[in-house]
Amino acid sequence: MSAITREEVAHLARLSRLALSEAELDHFAEQLDAIVGAVARVSELPTEDVPPTSHAQPLTNIFRADVVRPAGTQVLDRAEVLAQAPAAEDDRFRVPRILGED
Amino acid sequence: MSTDLTRRTAAELAASIASGEVSALEVTQAHLDRIGKVDEKVNAFLHVDTEGALSAARAVDAKRAKGERLGPLAGVPLALKDLFTTRGIPTTCGSKILEGWLPPYDATVTRRLREADVVILGKSNMDEFAMGSSTENSAYGPTRNPWDLERIPGGSGGGSAAALAAFEAPLAIGTDTGGSIRQPGAVTGTVGVKPTYGGVSRFGMVAFSSSLDQGGPCARTVLDAALLHEVIAGHDPLDSTSIDAPVPGVVAAAEAGAREGIKGLRVGVVKQLAGEGYQAGVMQRFEESVALLRELGAEVVEVDCPSFAYALPAYYLIAPSECSSNLARFDAMRYGLRVGDNGEHSAEEVTALTREAGFGAEVKRRIMLGTYALSSGYYDAYYGQAQKVRTLITRDFDAAFGRVDVMVSPTTPTTAFKIGERADDPMAMYLADLCTIPTNLAGNAGMSLPCGLAPEDGLPVGLQILAPAMADDRLYRVGAALEAALLAQWGRPMLDAVPAL
Known about the structure:
The complex is a heterodimer.
Chain A: H1 6-15, H2 22-39, H3 78-83, E1 88-89, E2 92-93
Antiparallel strand pairs in A: 1-2
Chain B: H1 10-19, H2 24-42, E1 45-48, H3 50-65, E2 77-81, H4 108-115, E3 119-124, H5 158-165, E4 171-175, H6 182-188, E5 191-194, E6 215-219, H7 222-232, H8 250-260, E7 266-270, H9 280-295, E8 299-303, H10 311-326, H11 347-358, H12 361-373, H13 380-401, E9 406-410, H14 426-430, H15 437-442, E10 445-453, E11 460-467, H16 472-490
Parallel strand pairs in B: 2-3, 2-4, 7-8, 7-9
Antiparallel strand pairs in B: 1-3, 4-6, 5-6, 5-10, 9-11, 10-11
Helix pairs in contact in B: 2-3, 7-8, 8-16, 10-12, 10-13
């Protein structure tokens, strides 16, 4: 098992969409390294023939009928939802630009 | 029965309201007054919905005046953990990223409480997105333990538990992913129940770790917890993980336990959840309670669950993995905070800047840990292996429940620790949930109830009862029997010893 380096934490932060500060990178590198060292104990148990359990219950997808609901009967009220958005325009969510400079 | 309405149990309050001895409005006002008097010190509430609560109480009184049928908890006030969506009442999950957010819908638990005429006083404080064991990770300041304001009230449901112990509410709702109902219950001297996974709907309960999260009741007595359990439990078509089966009769079980005891019941003491590393006073009270169970007619045996020693590491791989996925929804696009949207940053940069500003340290730590555990190259060694350990833990439970009806352990290795004491040491903090985590991994039911005060510090000790999935009624039967025996032994409810605030 590899130890977690500061560079790895910077990479994890990018993957996790977290703009961490330099001080946080140092702090988290130390803590994550200690945590990963402790949780790596799971490898001590022999599990060759053990199936994994992802969930306490067997799950099946449940789908709702794919039908358009008439205005006023939707699950969520459109105006109420948009009122909670950071920015809205023309009855829709307004998001920052998706494409970068390059 | 106490003349102070805030000292009465939920069952007593419901009976008093139903008989007309007091009005729901008087009961609600008494609790709002208490919150006004003590919550500045305790910080159990993030939002108090004074108008909503008074209006709900008036509606109960009007129903009664018209002779309409009232539910078993009609007019009884409640603190709702801020993880449940409440239409028209702010829901923050203890996080800055959702500051001021007004959900456009009610969680199923919220809806069921409203339909049962339970009075929602407000939203209780919690560790951010339920990540923590001390309620120090709330973006809105820590909650303090009413037994000693310098100490933690447990987490993540510290606000719910503290509201009960400070007599600000007779009932509360919590959520338990690794012990967040039971551990706060233990350190505040209150009763906390994690129902069987799937027993209470998760719709509108903001997800932290979907395969582990379970909402449940918090109360000051076992019967009160049972009454609340029956209000919120039951199948919900809006939640695909909700169990479509009848809810076990937990109120009847609590009444039977208090009345008839537990003669002939087989109780297992979990070898791996006691002994070395546990506070002496915690072990003393636990062992005295096990002796009481024997006196009540139970057959007590030791059970061996060797994989439990690996539950904590497995949990701290599985829960962060699911959290890293679940919290991806906080992207600054549709709701919540947005930072850096000044025309210079792309959507991706705005998301990263917002999450950096909006999440606290524990949430960031777990998101990155989960991202690491799920990343290519480490997936099999960490996440995959943890899922296999989860199978072994479930097998240990199955084998043990083949021999015994319930299992018991201390709920926590120590009594409430001091605020700040473990803040910089995540692994030390994670140990607070050592005894509660195995149950979440297996999906079984668990309860913590107060079993005395530790002699060395005078703080509450919790006893944990564990039952198989869908056998929640066993928790209540054993819990109520033990509660009655402890009451006889201690001479009064333990919460009477909470210092005046």
